[in-house]
Design a protein that fits this description.
5 helices; about 0% strand
């Protein structure tokens, strides 16, 4: 039970810190304070790393696992250099 609570706390903290990162872009698509952006990004990454430890998973394994899924969803050879094709393939995948 304690482990699940910790994982939930990490998930909540990631969202909270991600919102604080987003605040750095609230009024513009460009950041105003690089130090603040780096601080908030650091907070997000720290909580993500903590959560991966709680899940007993290696960060590299998590990323590789996700990249395999993305590669399946959006095959590069089919959408390379053509954004319209990318959108069509993305829509087909979502409607499966």
């Amino acid at each position: 039970m304690k482990k699940e609570r910790n994982l939930a706390a990490y998930a909540k903290s990631i969202c909270i810190e991600a919102a604080e990162l987003l605040e750095q872009f609230q009024w513009s698509s460009e950041y105003q304070d690089k130090e603040a952006v780096l601080d908030e990004l650091g907070d997000v990454l720290i909580y993500c790393l903590d959560m991966s430890i709680g899940l007993e998973m290696n960060v590299e394994d998590i990323v590789r696992r996700k990249l395999k899924k993305v590669k399946y969803k959006f095959p590069t050879e089919q959408v390379k250099d053509n954004y319209d094709d990318h959108l069509v393939i993305k829509e087909k995948f979502r409607n499966k």
